[in-house]
Design brief:
Helices cover about 15% and strands about 15% of the residues. The protein is α/β, with parallel strands linked by helices. It has a domain at about 75-145: Ribosomal Protein L15, Chain: K, domain 2.
Length: about 140
């Protein structure tokens, strides 16, 4: 076998379909598109997903239920051990944002009991879990609302 004798197997390469090239081609006149209608026109054969020809689509006919909160993913979680790294007298949401512990778009923050806290800190305006609150007060800190 030589490179110049290689060729695709029989039936592997098909002739390109030449539409609209006369009656002898078998695809003349309407070029296989039928007569009139949406798919006979150029550029008009595509409709959006869920389109039902003007009938009210299924996704609009069915009743909607449930609720998706727009602010649920904007509540940041902070570990108790990370509070010791904040260089502020009073730790609030702004101090956490400035220290880079919570993202800038966070609306609220909640302190979780993860790790330990040695120095007493003052926490203002943050949510705390029950265990985190107990650990904070045991370290000599306090919570202001």
């Amino acid at each position: 076998m030589r490179l110049n004798s290689l060729s695709p197997g029989p039936g592997a390469k098909r002739e390109r379909r030449r539409v609209g090239r006369g009656i002898g081609s078998g695809l003349g006149k309407t070029a296989g598109r039928g007569h009139k209608g949406q798919h006979a026109r150029t550029g008009r054969g595509k409709v959006g997903a869920g389109f039902e020809g003007g009938q009210m689509p299924l996704q609009r006919r069915l009743p909607k239920s449930g609720f998706k909160s727009l602010t649920a993913n904007r509540v940041a979680e902070v570990r108790l051990a990370d509070l010791a790294r904040v260089p502020a007298e009073v730790i609030d949401l702004l101090a956490l944002k400035l220290s880079g512990l919570v993202p800038g778009n966070a609306l609220r923050a909640k302190v979780m009991l993860k790790g330990s806290l040695e120095k007493p800190v003052v926490v203002r305006g943050l949510g705390l879990t029950r265990g985190a609150r107990a650990a904070l007060e045991a370290a000599g800190g306090r919570v202001e609302d």
